[in-house]
Design goal:
The protein contains 4 helices and 8 strands. The chain is of the alpha+beta class. The protein has a single domain (16-172), classed as Hotdog Thioesterase (Thiol Ester Dehydrase, Chain A, Roll). The protein has a 6-stranded antiparallel beta sheet. A hairpin with a 3-residue loop joins strand 6 and strand 7 (147-156).
């Protein structure tokens, strides 16, 4: 399928074809039922796939994934700026939420699923509207039969720590019917 890229409208802004991504969502989800969580996330990186239109809108992308860890990045441009020289906290919150959820996903077996049940974020520095790249590194703290938890830190490319957060997930394990 190849790496997916947005089209640009007349103003030069990225515009995603939601119909195409709805098809991608379905293909990705059907395929993910047969892959381990780490394979799902790594396949998403290879395909240039990011979950959901909101994450595409803010330009969030998965950079790297390993067992229990995910690194994501977002390029801060004018499209994310508020009228004051700041970026909404929702951007850092979204980065923490998705990276944490995907970090938990990397440790799940084929057919297992998780869903975020709580998110907490501490903002450490104002999220300046200075253009550049903001990254988040999420690491799994806990994973058992029914719960997962991950911690994440958001940093600007100059090294400034902008936010820390934690997510907790529900985990539903696929029940083996033998022969797995």
């Amino acid at each position: 399928m190849g790496r997916q890229q947005p089209e640009e409208d007349e103003s030069g802004e990225a515009r995603w074809d939601d119909e195409r991504f709805t098809r991608m969502d379905q293909d990705f989800l059907h395929g993910s039922l047969r892959m381990s969580g780490l394979e799902v996330v790594r396949n998403g990186i290879e395909q240039g796939y990011v979950l959901g239109p909101f994450y595409r809108m803010i330009g969030l992308r998965v950079v790297e994934a390993g067992p229990g860890t995910v690194t994501m990045a977002c390029t801060v441009t004018e499209r994310l700026h508020l009228p004051i020289p700041r970026v909404p906290g929702a951007v850092a919150s979204a980065m923490i939420e998705l990276s944490g959820a995907l970090a938990v996903q990397t440790l799940l077996e084929a057919g297992d699923i998780s869903a975020v049940r709580s998110l907490s974020v501490d903002f450490l520095e104002p999220f300046s509207a200075t253009d550049g790249t903001v990254t988040v590194l999420a690491t799994v703290d806990v994973l058992d039969e029914s719960t997962g938890a991950a911690s994440a830190t958001v940093r600007h490319d100059d090294g400034t720590e902008l936010a820390r957060g934690r997510i907790e997930t529900f985990v539903t394990r696929r029940r083996s019917t033998g022969g797995r």
